[in-house]
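REQUEST FORM: STRUCTURE PREDICTION
Request ID: SP-0412
Submitted by: Lab K.M.
Chain count: 1
Length (residues): 663
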Amino acid sequence: KDSTAFRLWAPTAQAVSVNLYESGTEGTDDLIESIPMTADINGTWVASKNGDLNGIYYTYTVTINGEEKEANDPYARTTGVNGKRAMIIDLESTNPEGWDSDSNPHAGEGINDAVIYEMHIRDVSSDSSSGIENVGKYLGLTETGTTTENGVPTGLDHIKDLGITHLHLLPFYDYGSVDETKLDTPQFNWGYDPVNYNVPEGSYSTDPYHGEVRVKEAKEMVKTLHDNDISVVMDVVYNHVYNAGEFCFNVIVPEYFSRVNDNGTYSNGSGCGNDTASERSMVKKYIVDSVKYWADEYHIDGFRFDLVGLLDTETMNEVIGEVHKDHPDVIFYGEGWSMQTSLTKEGYSMTTQTNSTEVPEMAFFSDTLRDLLKGNTFSTTEKGFVSGANGKEKTLQKCFMGLSPEWCTTPSQSINYASCHDNLSLMDRIIRSTPEASVEERIRMNNLTAAIYMTAEGVPFMQAGEEFLRSKVKADGGLDENSYASPDSVNSLKWSNLEDEQYQNVYQYYKGLIAFRKAHPVLRLDNAENVKAHVTPVEDLDDNVVAFAITGDVDGETADGMYVIFNANNEKKEVTLPEGNWNVCINDTLAGTDTIETISGTAEVAPVSALILVKGDGNGSTAVVSAGTLPAWMAYVFTILVAVVIGACSVWSQKKAGKAGRK
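STATUS: Completed
RESULT:
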């Protein structure tokens, strides 16, 4: 409140000044003053101003080779509209009530305990059936009690009921592809276009013109999710920027932040026009500082790195190490694809799948499992294991054990998934590759896919809406493979579909799969040695049938053993079971922790389905009404009746205990 200090790294500048403005709107003639800065140590420039400047906006002007250029602060904490002017802000004033005691609801758990749900902030509320008031806003994820017209829960209530542990939000730092001055005009973008890395995106706030609003509302979103037992993962894109020539860091220190080819053009391994030079010391420092800032200031519980294969392993290990000093439970994962890029220094290795052992605390998306399940992503008519492809059994065995043959040596580094925001949704991919199949057959393929990646060793990851057969249909009736800038009509979550019994049944199946995974630690083993000791592939089965015998002697495991069978054939198959009685918890239509039936000797596995059995009393106590048992409205009534009975029993028990105490 007494003064504000400024420091900028601009080692090639001949002069620097800081410009103070009344507003955050570029082009507005409201300059308060321009303060010359003084050269200081290590290429930095400093200035200070007495008085309380909270809410004042600012930029820097640098003079390089006699030319003056104005730029935003690369370390800006918030900005005015469209991120052109930084704002001086008292961050403590933006904290929601209870922020000091806010924490990761899944602290103490490992990444293998996570069930990750990927979602775009706008998608959750943009369909008219969402019942959410703050459409497309951070605050949309703070609303509870929202339903469809016929009372089916939507938004936060739906996500919480599904049972996921981590909500992965597509980028919500300030990005450039949505004009915040035209929010009354339909616009959409996934947000992989960074402009200000340390500033929340303004289009998701209720007021992008006042910098404190976006900060406060982003924190309110995180706090509400934490209060509902949901950890928050932030999708970050440090591998490239929206426009390298205009990016503030490159304006202040020309061509330092981005890799440049020998011919003077920007390296473009990202396919987005430029690559970040993470191997340069001040770029590395910037990335480390930025990620740590989000963990410290916004209580972010995990980071998903876009195209992390373009960043060097030294930088990523330092990022993880610095964040884990204060936040040991934060998880890290990303796209470890190998891409060509022009490094500015020699001797650096990149954070790719093939270098996974060099970044042991970083997990990577398993495209091996993804393509095995549904077919090659880039050949959309190709079939996968669930849709009838042959010869996938051995690879599936290794993927299920979290030990993909190409690169993965530990299940803690395998993100197991079938769909994400990129490419076709799972159901659309199945539709594309099975033109002859019925809707019922496709749903079987969808549910078998989910059963595999939800029970596999490693970390399950799903796209929002997959649990009710999300489809991205364009205006012409085609399926959208790349909806990064498509309208809400394509990208929105169609909550009203959950009023249909068919969709509701799939949702209940997913919910049951998640509950089952969370109930069984033996499915969440965090190293290769434990997996090999407890999970054994079953050999000599029919083609397109894969099974595993799993022992139960793991800390916290209540089952004496488990038997997992996946049948991708269009006819039922029989599999001989080990000796004893086996409780079926998951079959072709039901999933959960309760026993469906008890069998022995031989298991009959329905066409294109999973059958998962446990031995002993290890099927848990959580009742899960699943697909095919009841219509949606009956399931809802049944749940209420169960709650009433449990409540009555609890009251009776308390009264009885009270009488016993008085005696």
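NOTES: Confidence is low (pLDDT under 50) at residues 620-640, 642-663.
Reviewed by: T.R.
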